Amino acid sequence: MAGLSANEARQLAQSAFAALRNGQTEQARRQFERLVAGGVAEASVFIGLAYACASLSDRASAHSAADRALALEPSGLQVLMLKGDLLHAEADGQAAAAYYRAALRAAPDPSRLSPNLRNELKRAQDMIAHYAGKFESFLVTELEKAGFDERRDARFAQSLELMLGKKEIYPQQPRAYYFPGLPLIQYFDNTRYPWLKPLEDATDDIRAELLRILEEDAGAFQPYVQGDPDRPKVNQGPMLNNPAWSAFFLWKNGEPVPENMARCPRTMAALEGVPKPHVPGRTPSMLFSLLRPGAHIPAHHGMLNTRMIGHLPLIVPPGCALRVGNETREWKVGQAWLFDDSIEHEAWNNSAETRVILLFEAWREEISERERQLVSAMLASIDAYGGKKADWD
């Protein structure tokens, strides 16, 4: 090393770092500068110099030293944090947040860090949240000046949450059949489906028929996910043959269940207006879906994206909810909804009571009548070739 022997450099570095730790920042700065002038080009030396300059409020020199450290060690956690702090002190929030985010990305597993560096990571997270909150507040204020209303502009509001990183994008990922070109919608807008209102209006009648079945013949409910002896049982999840998620079918796999339908005439009348997909052996399925206390239906995807799944809540204790993609909703008795089950979804009952909904299928409105016929013909052809409807959808 030009100007300094290895031993001299080591002793000078030890002295410089000791001075920095003891608050002797002027002395530390001089010693770090001597190391640099003596040809010691190590990231740790430039980091020490940057800290000393920052403590002396010489931010220009601190930036210069930090930049030289970053050139040698682009993923250095300490120097990334220091750059963020320098920019934060200069009120350059966007640049500061960029360095704090880089520090988080560069950090190894926290278990491998010292307590001090773990605290630094926590501080980086806090600073990122601080700047994200400021940016969001500014953005919403400006948008409100332009007429933005979160309830009226629900779709734009969701795009804003995605852009701000508050939610992630969940694509349609049907397990068997994907129909291209359909809008990515998690929960559909009820106002587009006038046939839902008569169904909601019949809630009391439907609920009365359900309660009578539960009182007279609770054993009529069978596990919703049932194994097929001709199919392997691997990867079928904890709900396989599990009565925690049970069903009383009115239609099952495209076939009516006459004895059950006869017990629920008002329910069947209320379902008349639903645009049901008809494929023998496949669809529709219409049922009372029962979820027992403490049950959790794990996250999964449905078979195809050409349909909507409808729920009409009938018995709903507190603590019962459905997550579709990045949106979670709690069921409320008599308030129906439609969702795309080809998007990852899960459900849970965190109460001490049973939850029951009426579940049904409906065509997506974007699919034309001819396309519906073709989809139905395709599914029927698959069955004719020997395919079987999967156990879980």
TrEMBL record:
<dbReference type="Pfam" id="PF05118">
    <property type="entry name" value="Asp_Arg_Hydrox"/>
</dbReference>
<keyword id="KW-0560">Oxidoreductase</keyword>
<dbReference type="InterPro" id="IPR011990">
    <property type="entry name" value="TPR-like_helical_dom_sf"/>
</dbReference>
<dbReference type="InterPro" id="IPR051821">
    <property type="entry name" value="Asp/Asn_beta-hydroxylase"/>
</dbReference>
<protein>
    <submittedName>
        <fullName>Tetratricopeptide repeat-containing protein</fullName>
    </submittedName>
</protein>
<dbReference type="InterPro" id="IPR027443">
    <property type="entry name" value="IPNS-like_sf"/>
</dbReference>
<comment type="similarity">
    <text>Belongs to the aspartyl/asparaginyl beta-hydroxylase family.</text>
</comment>
<dbReference type="InterPro" id="IPR007803">
    <property type="entry name" value="Asp/Arg/Pro-Hydrxlase"/>
</dbReference>
<feature type="domain" description="Aspartyl/asparaginy/proline hydroxylase">
    <location>
        <begin position="201"/>
        <end position="364"/>
    </location>
</feature>
<dbReference type="GO" id="GO:0051213">
    <property type="term" value="F:dioxygenase activity"/>
</dbReference>
<keyword id="KW-0223">Dioxygenase</keyword>
<dbReference type="GO" id="GO:0016020">
    <property type="term" value="C:membrane"/>
</dbReference>
